[in-house]
Each structure stands twice: as structure tokens, then as C-alpha cells.
Amino acid sequence: MKAKTYKEKKKKYWNKFNYKKWFKDNRGKFIDDTEKNSISYLLSEDKDKKYNFCLDVGIGNGRLLSSYYRKCKKIIGLDFAGKLIKGVEEEEKRLKIKVTTKVGDAENIPFDDNKFDLIINTRVLQHLPNWRKCIDEMARVGKNNSILILMVYNRLSFYGFKKFFLRFRDKFRHGDWNTVFNITRELTNRGFKVEKLIGTMPFQPELLGRDPTKKGIRSLWTLEPFAYRFPMKCFSGRMVIRATLKK
């Protein structure tokens, strides 16, 4: 499938998908909480520091804004799904903040060089036909010593192994997942210095069914601290990276 056709198909999919509803059941709430916790954790070492310009590449409906908005003076959200990005307005009202949104392509970020102090990119790379170009673009628009918080799906997780084989049948649905080895290499090659890498969701909640019981969710929470440490972080469902850009 050609890149342009792939992107158009993805855009239609996300504009129709009820993203907010997906995080309402027990499974979705667990995923939402763990992802927010991981981003907050990687930004916690900044203490009282505030970034002047923050770019969220693939902001979607603004679901993860609550995990980082306190660190930012100005937030710009980019997403190629025009209908999905309208959901940011609801989060703005709930959090009492202002977010500037723009419809655009993560592989061709429509901003000037050396503009942003903080870049957030969560669960985006696996949806792109050329995810390395997105890293190129984040390196271009980031300032020297800017911070990147990157969340990617992990091919070496139990769920990732399943998806790796399913993508040969349908790459559109199952995406292109990364490993700790190739994602850190690609970041390093583009000037990012990886400072910390953690995992989240060492046991994928889907394995407990579409809507796990509260008891099942509690058991997942007991495993979560291990995902932040070696070696479990290398095999958890998500990898979350903090990196500094050196130009």
C-alpha cells in the first residue's frame, strides 16, 4: 500500500473511531492510568521547571494532557485526524487550560526548526508508514537540549509477538512495532540522548478479556512497578523513553 493511500485510510479510521469510549471500561481505564503515570514519572525529575513551548505529536482527543500540562506554558497539539482532534476542546474545559491545535502530518511537522522545548509523542510511530521520518522531524523542530517523551508499543512483549505476526496479514491494523534496541538506536542516530527508559503493562490486559474484573485489574497493578525496572521494562507492553536532543 502506498504511503499516501495508507495515511488516508488511517485518517478515515481515526475520524470514525470512538476513541473516548475505548477507555471507559476496566481495561481502558487501566491502560489510560498506566500511560499517564509513566509520562508523569519521566517528567517528575524536572520538579518545578516549566517548558515554554510543548508540542504533542499525535495529540488525538487530548486524553494524556493531564499527565504533562502543568509542565508547559504553551501547548500545541498536532494530529492528522481533524474530527478526533476536536476532542481536545473538552479536555481544555476540564483542565481549564488553552491548547492550540493544528491538523497536520507527523512525518512533515508544519513548524519551524528549533521551536519546541518539550515534545510528547505517544502511541504514534506504529501508525506511520515511515516512522523514522517522524523522528527526523521531531529532531528538526526541537531546540538544543529539548526533551522528548516517547511512548511506543513493544514488539518484544507477549502482545507484541502476537501483533508482529498478525501484521504480515494486515499491516494497516497491526502496525509496525519497535524493540528497545532499534528505537534507542534510531533516536541516538538523530542526536537524541536516551536518559531513561521504562516500561508499562508487563502483562497485557487484553489477555484477561475485553473487560477484566476489578480483581484482575488489581493483579495487573501489582505487576506494574516491575515494568519500570530491568529486565521487565524491555519486555513490557509499552516502552516509555525520556531523551534529550543534542544539536
Task: Tell me what you see in this structure.
The protein is globular, with a radius of gyration of 17 Å. It has ten helices and seven strands. Strands 3-2-1-4-5-7-6 form a seven-stranded mixed sheet, sandwiched between helices. 37% of the residues lie in helices and 23% in strands. It is α/β, with parallel strands linked by helices and 247 residues long.
- Which of globular, elongated, flat, extended, rod-shaped describes the shape? globular
H/E element sequence:
HHHEEHHEEHEHHHEHE
CATH H-level name... which superfamily? Vaccinia Virus protein VP39
Q: What is the CATH T-level topology?
A: Rossmann fold
Distance separating the two termini: 35 Å
Class derived from helix and strand content: alpha/beta
Number of helices: 10
Instruction: Work out the radius of gyration.
Output: 17 Å
Mean pLDDT: 92
Number of strands: 7
Q: How many structurally independent domains? A: 1
